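Sequence in, structure out.
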Amino acid sequence: MTGSGLKRVLITGATSGIGEGLVNLYSKAHHVVACGRNEDKLKRLEAQNVQSLKFDMTEKAQVANAFSDMEQVDIVILNAGVCEYIDDALHFDSELFERVINANVIATGYCIEALLPKIKLNGQLVIVSSSASFLPLPRAQAYGASKAALSYLTRVMQVELENIDVTLVHPGFVETPLTDKNDFPMPFLVTVEKACEKIYEGVERRKKEIHFPKRFTLLLKLFSLLPFSLWLPLAKRIKR
């Protein structure tokens, strides 16, 4: 792992999956602030000389309080999120939809508001979305919509921010506790370690977009260029 001097890196969703993997990777060479809700896991991360912050990202007051006295940081990685599916479109679950949008989108907004003033001049903001945002997929009314919103939000921040580099991350399927619950095939599944290496390398290069594995994400990007009338029968076949 290479780097350009000791940096202060804040990572949300740090107690599981990609977030935990990024903490393990960055803490080898940088000072890491790990954010999450699981107190036991945060304590274990502290044993790696990692600073921890315990709070609920969906509670605005908790977010503001957690970051109020924090020192400035070089890199903020907003990675926390949830995944739930709507199994029956005819019986749309608005409570599930609200949970996912709040956890993935609104909570990210709370963090951006609280953390932008804490990012150093020429620092970096990294937002983890998903390749599910590329195309409308079965059962993904809530998850896909939340990730599409995150991708749009991040692109606008890239336009607006002058002295902070903004990176958008579009992972494919990554082997995490979140995807362990999926009951469908996950093509080109990658390990957490491989995903975190890709993210780390892309952030180091200050890339505008990081997407992987490319044999999967490029295929989705190609499908997204098709007229919807051509994608629709393919999506229905996936559903079946």
